[in-house]
Amino acid sequence: MRRLVGVLAISIVALAPVHGATAADQKGEYGIRGAGLVSCQTYNQEREARSRAYDVIGGWIDGYITGINQYAGDTYDAAPFETTELYAALVSEYCKKQPETTVFAVVNSLIKYHWKDRLLASSPKAEVVVGKQKVMLYVEVIRQIQQRLSQRGFYHGKVADSYEPAVQKAMGAFQSSIHFKPTGFPDEASLWQLFTAQ
Length: 198
What we know:
This protein is mainly α. It folds into 2 domains: 2-117, no CATH class; 125-196. The protein is 51% helix and 6% strand. Strands 1-2 form a two-stranded antiparallel ribbon. The longest helix is centred in the first third of the chain and has 20 residues, at 52-71. The radius of gyration is 17 Å and the shape is globular. 30% of the residues are buried.
């Protein structure tokens, strides 16, 4: 997790709204409501306590992403492989460094940083199984994984709609290159690194 959140430090960019003009006033301004207004300091206290407030903030994160999916143009899913828990962990690590920042600002920046990686259109999901580990991923994400691995020289096969053994082997090699356990499984931490790595 430390390597994962290390990338967050360079991932947080200008705290500006994600393509907010489509759902804002004429000046591009809009109101922020609910748990998004919670300070990073409070967020981390509630996360550590695993309180009901922490659960509410997680729900707010999901709702915010859903709102972006609904109102942003050319967007089906702004966070196509990231779960609420991944976002929660990333927010927490950033918040340790900037306790006065709001949860909204951090989540918005994470989405903005990965905006180019969003799903533009609906995509079916497929189960990926590696050993005893299973995950459901959008087929388009599986294709993007192969493209990213190919761009970095780890995968040399044809980009397909399924997670074949050659892709698993390439993912394992990528994981080794970033000092992760080379399972070949497309876990969130590995995908975050793959999609974030320049």
